[in-house]
Design a protein that fits this description.
This protein is mostly helical and 120 residues long. It contains 6 helices and 2 strands; from the N terminus they run αβααααβα.
Length: 120
Amino acid sequence: MEWFGRILLNAVFFLLLSLLIPSFTVVGVGNAILASILLALVNMLVRPLLILFTLPATILTLGLFLFVINALMLLLTNKLMGEGFIIDGFGTALLIAILMSILNLFLNSSNSKRENRRRR
């Protein structure tokens, strides 16, 4: 159930970011959910191999290269989606990856605070 919640949350993030970034377009909620599912599958299948192959670059950049990997995963999702989910270039994908990471960071920190309060 948590996986499905994250899928929906990423779909909402896609819709919000498409309103803020002119070179990023998501046409409809259905396309946002489908893109979110595809991104989750790509992250499960391709991303671990890419991280393994680029480990020296990731270590050298103190982890910042992971944003590049996330941007590449978004571009792959863009290619698989076709119409309805359009990222105009690598710079846009990198910006989306950074903003989604920040949004997820805030969300995860608020969830962990809520969990800590529940445990007490």
